[in-house]
Amino acid sequence: MGAYSLLDVTRRGPVTRLTLNRPARRNALTHAMMLELERAFAAVRDDAECRVLVLRGAGGHFCAGGDLDAMAEMPPRPANGGDDPLVPAYRQFGDALLALNTLPQATVAIVEGSAVGGGFGMACCSDVVILHASARFGVPEPKVGFIPSQIIPFLVRRLGEGVLRDLAVTGRVIDAAEAHRLGVGRHLCTTAAEIDSTLDAVIEDILRLEPRALATVKDLVLACATHDDRTVLDDAAERLVGLLRRPHASLGIKAFMAKTSPPWVKG
């Protein structure tokens, strides 16, 4: 999966595990870390053997948003009135989130401890979120004079405008129980053993799905947020027929009728 200094990325069989690895800083994001995340997501996308990405933070925290020490060290604005070079640097994290959000593989985030700002965004870009009771979410950036710029569309789609407006204008941090109620995550766990057993069950469910069918239905779900209904329905019909014409659909139907497992279930 390549060499990373701020991430730990490994693949075993069809499952890739990506761990944000700055535990002393609660995995707070630096620009270097954002670049590594974008590179890692691109590598996962291109890995034909990978069917599941599991995203986690080291040291009991998912991600405490942007690293304030790094953000406080602002270089001066260009003296010649030119474009501010920091704008594309911060915009880049949006590209990393888009890459995570649109991966053809299933993505599972395990969220423990702090998950504010960018951490909240990565959770909302994941297909399945497993919450530990210690998880805390929020967009507290306005408390210190800036905003969570690149995560906003992903939070709106996950939570809805009304919920995010409340969080944005109060800066309050919500606990795992409220995040579970609001639909940030489907699973709420209280112990490490419960997280492990929940993750195993989720991965088992995912590996029952034929990979291209999974990628296709995920892409169509995402398209509903940005395309009109007719466009999505037209595309869905074309893709359905394309999938039915592949031998995989025939194998899957025969296996279902015979009450056996199709070949992709073996992972």
Order of helices and strands: EEHEHHEEHEEHHEHEHHHH
What proportion of the residues form beta strands (DSSP E)?
Answer: 5-15%
Average pLDDT taken over every residue: 95
Largest sheet: 6 strands, mixed
- For the secondary structure, the number of strands is 9
Question: How many angstroms separate the termini?
Answer: 19 Å
Strand line-up across the major sheet: 1-2-3-4-6-9
Low-confidence region ranges: none
Strand-pairing-aware structural class:
alpha/beta
Overall geometry: globular
Residue share in helix: 40-55%
Give Rg in angstroms.
20 Å
Mind explaining what this structure looks like?
- With 267 residues, the chain is α/β, with parallel strands linked by helices.
- It starts with 6 loop residues before the first strand and ends in a 9-residue tail after the last helix.
- The strands form two sheets. The chain has a six-stranded mixed beta sheet with strand order 1-2-3-4-6-9, sandwiched between helices.
- The relative contact order is 0.11.
- The radius of gyration is 20 Å and the shape is globular.
- It has eleven helices and nine strands.
- A hairpin with a 2-residue loop joins strand 1 and strand 2 (15-20).
- The model has no long low-confidence stretch (mean pLDDT 95).
